[in-house]
Amino acid sequence: TGSTVVRWEPYTDISTGQRWRGWARFAHTGELGGLAGQVVAGLASAGATLLVYTGFSLAIRRLTRRISTGRARAA
């Protein structure tokens, strides 16, 4: 099953917003800058993962400290 072209518009005929969205998609995934862009996107993903890990570890540490000292507050 092949794909069918429903409507074709030249790049010069699309709106500025559609052009920006097209460029932003490739910039967001790191494809716009080639290998360097993908490395930057990978580092940003690794940084986000590290932030999630540290957030969870701090929350667990606070929770266990509160439970072990008996300072659990009534909600």
Give a summary of the structure in a few sentences:
The chain has 75 residues and is mainly alpha-helical. It is 67% helix and 0% strand. The protein is built from two helices and no strands.
Kindly describe this structure:
With 75 residues, the chain is mainly α. It has helices spanning 16-29, 34-69. The radius of gyration is 24 Å and the shape is elongated. It starts with 15 loop residues before the first helix and ends in a 6-residue tail after the last helix. The model has no long low-confidence stretch (mean pLDDT 88).
pLDDT under 50 segments (min length 5)? none
The SSE string, one letter per element, is: HH
Mean pLDDT level: 88
Instruction: Classify the beta-strand content into a percent band.
Output: under 5%
End-to-end distance, in Å? 59 Å
Number of H- or I-type helical stretches: 2
The quaternary state of the protein chains shown equals: single chain
Secondary structure class reads mainly alpha
